[in-house]
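Can't paste images in this forum, so I'm doing it all in text. The chain is below; anyone willing to post the predicted structure tokens underneath?
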Amino acid sequence: MGSRRRARQYALQAMYQADLMGISAMASLNHLWSGHLDGEGLEDTVAPDSEEVEFAQRLVQGAMEDLEGLDELIESCSTNWRLARMPLVDRNILRIAAYELKHCPDIPANVSVNEAIEIAKQFGTADSRAFVNGIVDGMGRKLGRLDAKRRRR
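Text version of the structure:
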């Protein structure tokens, strides 16, 4: 059975690589899939199942299609942080969460927020969890997807 968290992690990896290499995020994701198919450097790694592939592609493609709008939403909810100054990992976690909050009513907002925080704890710096939490909480409230009284984690 597929894991949406793993799919989010694949999406993050593809978007991060795309930023570093200056290529499209979908090309980066396709490169990630081909690496899994041929086993290139991926010992002890479970190949993604079709649900993970589909969800990761939905996240990457959707985020890239509304990149400008998502970036504006992120900046509007961050205090004293321009997008260009944010660490690449945090910025891409926020883009995925922003996409989910803005365009995926089938995903409960609290799930999108909690997943962003968990992925930030795993892939980000010591400060990423609190940084991501504050911004995704603000985005959820701004979009009317979270209660204004929601307690921060």
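The radius of gyration is 15 Å. Residues 5 and 115 are 7 Å apart (CA to CA).
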